[in-house]
């Protein structure tokens, strides 16, 4: 597994494991599946693992920490996020989480990008994971709290970085414009951009990626399958795109790309992973997975060579943008 390096020397494997599924995203992940996910990733050379308090109300952090406990700490990179403080809620413990995770709602999320909230969140995450430090800390989805997050919140993360508590700081969002604004405002090292640099939506290439490259900020690409549409060789008729039903136009474009890919012996998911890694600003592609089969499948996709002629044909037909530098 190749690595790419952030500006202060932190190496990230080109493929990272996203662990929302360890938090029971959409359905229960068994303990066996959780074991398999981390074991298969490690065996395949993945050394970058991403989690967050939001994922399963802390369950993802606990499970990931348990499964990394016997691994040499200097051999992997782990990122988590701040902005949602978890608070005990006995009154709702009989209910299920209402934000996408199949877990009891015995804990609730509270938005908090204040300095105290950030510091508390990091302390709580260290306790849940059992770690003594994190490598990367991201502001998590600060869209509706951007002013505080881009001043007080990122200031607290920079303070932790300056103290040596964490190696790199930044933000993770589904929108590219605020990430670009954060780079302009603050001394960040890395940003995670979900869904905005993909085969079907390369909007981050207009501003965020050139700016990041100019400032020496690494970009971690997430959501490269656009919530499912690009995750199969052929998108089903009921495929989702950005977590909504895909339009006929988007489905037609995905199928047209798949037509070209098949002539070269590769698949839509192979292209989706490779597309993001072609850009020199991108340092890693984080892929979520559940169990041995899905992780192995993602590793195979990442290892599939894509002929230059295929990219040239996609660019010439206007199916995929040619800009990648």
Automatic annotation (TrEMBL):
Source superkingdom: Bacteria
GO molecular function: oxidoreductase activity
CDD domains given in the database record: AKR_AKR15A
NADP-dependent oxidoreductase domain: residues covered: 14-315
GO CC annotation terms, alphabetical: cytosol
Pfam families: Aldo_ket_red
UniProt xrefs under PANTHER family: GH17980P-RELATED
Protein name: Oxidoreductase
């Amino acid at each position: 597994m190749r690595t790419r390096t952030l500006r202060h020397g932190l190496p990230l494997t080109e493929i990272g494991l996203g662990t929302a599924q360890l938090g029971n995203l959409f359905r229960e992940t068994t303990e066996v599946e959780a074991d398999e996910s981390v074991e298969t990733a490690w065996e395949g050379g993945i050394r970058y693992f991403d989690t967050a308090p939001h994922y399963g109300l802390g369950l993802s952090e606990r499970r990931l920490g348990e499964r990394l406990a016997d691994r040499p700490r200097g051999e992997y990179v782990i990122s988590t996020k701040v902005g949602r403080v978890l608070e005990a809620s006995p009154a709702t413990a009989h209910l299920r989480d209402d934000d996408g995770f199949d877990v009891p709602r015995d804990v609730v999320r509270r938005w908090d990008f204040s300095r105290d909230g950030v510091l508390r969140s990091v302390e709580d995450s260290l306790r849940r994971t059992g770690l003594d430090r994190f490598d990367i800390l991201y502001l998590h989805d600060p869209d509706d709290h951007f002013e505080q997050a881009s001043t007080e919140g990122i200031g607290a993360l920079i303070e932790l970085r300056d103290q040596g508590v964490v190696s790199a700081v930044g933000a993770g969002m589904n929108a590219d414009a605020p990430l670009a604004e954060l780079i302009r405002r603050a001394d960040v090292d890395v940003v995670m951009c979900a869904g905005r640099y993909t085969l079907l939506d390369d909007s981050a290439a207009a501003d965020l990626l050139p700016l990041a490259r100019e400032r020496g900020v690494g970009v971690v690409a997430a959501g490269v399958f656009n919530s499912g549409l690009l995750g199969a060789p052929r998108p089903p008729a009921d495929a989702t795109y950005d977590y909504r039903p895909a339009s006929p136009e988007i489905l037609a474009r995905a199928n047209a790309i798949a037509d070209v890919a098949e002539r070269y012996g590769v698949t839509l998911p192979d292209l989706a992973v490779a597309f993001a890694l072609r850009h020199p600003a991108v340092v890693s592609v984080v892929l979520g997975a559940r169990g041995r089969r899905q992780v192995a499948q993602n590793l195979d996709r990442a290892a599939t060579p894509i002929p230059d002629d295929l990219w040239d044909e996609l660019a010439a037909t206007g199916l995929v943008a040619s800009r990648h530098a």
